[in-house]
UniProtKB/TrEMBL annotation:
Transmembrane segments: 101-122
Keyword Transmembrane recorded: yes
This protein's UniProt keywords: Membrane, Transmembrane, Transmembrane helix
Source species of the chain: Rhizobium mongolense
The name this protein goes by in its record: Lysozyme family protein
Amino acid sequence: MVFLRALKTWKTFGKGWTARVNGVRAVGQAWASGSVGPEVQYIVGGDAKAFLSDAKRAPTLAVADATTGGGVGSGGLAATLQQVQDQLAPLSYSSELIGKVVAGLIVISAVLTIGGLAYRWYANRRKTERLDALDLQVKTDAQAAA
């Protein structure tokens, strides 16, 4: 059932597949207990095959990388603006606008960085679940190089 739920076509065929699996389980349990068991029913279209190519794709990590990079970049920009404001402070009045922009960039930087890292964790978790459901192994960098 875990394998079947990992397929893109689950929404279309999931109800029938669940009924078929439950029927096979009921017959198997009846036979295992020595009973004649329920009557086996044929469901039209129930013999459709599922292929690995039908599996849903795992979320991409590019979104996580871009978001985290944007957060780090915003933090660097905020630090630069803060330094400029500190250097210009003796020459003129402190600009409230620069202070607000720096504070906003710091908040945006934190949100983007944390969001990017959280999405990376989510995407890696989904990828591992799909590979496990499809009975595939995760290749490490060392295995891929060999």
